[in-house]
Amino acid sequence: MYACSKFASTPSLVRSTYQLLSRPLSAVVLNRPEALTDKSQGLAGPRPLTSLVPSRRFQTSAISRDIDTAAKFIGAGAATVGVAGSGAGIGTVFGSLIIGYARNPSLKQQLFSYAILGFALSEAMGLFCLMVAFLILFAM
Q1: Calpha distance 46→127 (Å, rounded)
Q2: Contact (CB, 8 A) for 97 and 112
């Protein structure tokens, strides 16, 4: 009984258990801890409490990377919705050009220049949406 209690309270076992419990579950499951050996512990006495606190390093697990990748795809998909709006805007501009030309054929040149300006602005907004989608996917 005494030997069992002595084994259960060894400092190396306490330290390794504390390190396991203080890390996120995904880091514990995906990165098995190495066997911790305590060579400096002997009859010298216990260490100060600050030596038991593990240093926190930036850890990225596979689960976290999967969530980040899914968020990128969702964000890029939401950003490409603006391309459909660009298509609808171009259709509206040229539809209005045809209606305006049918009402007053003498303003053909002025209406056409306005339609080209509307087409360019609508297409630019669609390209900006596409650019943001690519930035989300590849730059972050």
Answers
A1: 65
A2: yes
